[in-house]
Amino acid sequence: MEPAVRPILFHSAEERTALIELFTSEGCSSCPVADRWLGGLSTSGRLWKDFVPVAWHVDYWDGLGWVDALASPGNTRRQETYVKLWHARSPYTPGLVVNGREWRDWSPSESVPALDGTRVGVLDLKATAAGEFEVSFRPGSKRLETDSRESLEVTIAWLGNGLESAVRRGENSGKTLRHSFVVLSSITGPLAPSKGADGGWSARINFPLPSVKAKQRAVAAWVSKAGNPSPVQVVGGVWPNP
């Protein structure tokens, strides 16, 4: 069991923070290059301020020789939801997404796209104990394109850095793969309008740490419209070691 922690606050600016999503698999020979690129973002001074990276391991490669232990059907469903929104033909790996938009011309030499400076609002994620979160979101000067205050939700994801896997079969057979910002588990729940006239939203969510061991753990959270995975605002940071 994780020990109790002092209250920890992850706080976004009002300007939009980018959510960089990588859909990947240990069974895909093209994915290690993208995995290394994502891991390289750990040394950027913009990390957690301008962008939050997450890696979703999908399971549709698992029947081709190697079962990715980090993959889950839920991760695949998230990518499939994007595919439907984009009216694209099918999911693929490695697949990069920035703020809900397909980054199809990505290459290993690319840097993180510049932010547009849109003031979408402030997102706070407060951990009052290990696995107990308070979420608050105060929309910014740019109004959300929604005609109801009952249609926002928040996703919280536990991330793992420094994960390694010795692949014994499949396209990456014989390689030791290293992963960063891996989504170990995630949960999505509704946001409720806050009492008062501030136009804010809030939620309390119990989401314990997963049992997967990682050299370093982090947490990320993002607000989106209900049923649409594209983020409105995102926040994240490193979780302290016990």
Properties at a glance:
single chain; 242 residues; Immunoglobulin-like; 5-stranded antiparallel sheet; 2 helices; globular
Would you kindly provide a brief summary of this structure?
With 242 residues, this protein is mainly beta. It is 10% helix and 39% strand.
Describe this structure in words.
10% of the residues lie in helices and 39% in strands. With 242 residues, the protein is mostly beta strands. The chain has a single domain, classed as Immunoglobulin-like. The strands form four sheets. The chain has a five-stranded antiparallel β-sheet with strand order 1-6-7-13-12, with no helix packed on it. A four-stranded mixed β-sheet has the order 3-2-4-5, with helices on both faces. A four-stranded antiparallel β-sheet has the order 11-8-14-15, with no helix packed on it.
What is the CATH topology?
Immunoglobulin-like
CATH class: Mainly Beta
Shape: globular
Sequence of strands across the biggest β-sheet? 1-6-7-13-12
Biggest sheet descriptor: 5 strands, antiparallel
- What CATH architecture do you see? Sandwich
Uncertain ranges:
none
Number of helices: 2
Our count of domains comes out at: 1
Mean pLDDT over the residues: 91
CATH homologous superfamily label:
Immunoglobulins
- Estimated share of beta-strand residues: 35-45%
Say how many strands there are: 15
First-last Cα distance: 11 Å
What portion of residues is helical?
under 10%
Going by helix content, strand content and strand pairing, the class is mainly beta
Structural Rg: 18 Å
H/E element sequence: EEHEHEEEEEEEEEEEE
